[in-house]
User: What shape does this take?
Amino acid sequence: FVTTVRGPPTMTKIAQLLLAALLALAGALALAVPAAASVPACDLTFGSLPESAAPMNASPLVATRTGQHPCWDRVVFQIAGAVGAGWDVQYVDTVHQDGSGIPLTVPGGARLSVVLHHPSVDEQGRPTYLRRVGPVADVAGYQTLRSVVFGGSFKGLTTFGVGVRARLPFRVFALAGPGGDTRIVLDVLHKWDAGR
Assistant: This one.
């Protein structure tokens, strides 16, 4: 039988115990604080000045849809084919129907005129976007969007009015897909200082 005699803790032992306690505390804090990857990426480049992309293309509009993100509301315009997408988007007082110039009713505190450089008919003149002039999306409950209104198509251009809560920053860009199609994407931030 062996008896071990222990003396007072040494500085090395105290340092080891303190280090272990600090590591345990850091681990507990890491679990309690959400990871940076789970925080929405709202700090992107948006503005309120007109945006445009020049290409005119005979590839027609085939669909629209809307969606919500933690930082912005989105409108997607789907164009048939993998094409050079073109658009003019800007804040206006009144959005007008293509061809007739008749003012569109676009509910919202501010209005974006969205002119796609694409028709809503194919090369034989058959409609590819089967909606009448007027509202085309139910955006009830969205934070920013108030309305999406089809304004018609004339001479290769297709117009929409997008009503938003206020004159907020937006961005427009093109994405490939789904399939072989192209999407023109309009995102409107929920507030001016999102993510900052």
Summary: The longest helix spans residues 11-32. The beta strands are 51-53, 61-68, 72-79, 87-92, 110-116, 134-135, 145-154, 157-164, 170-176, 182-189.
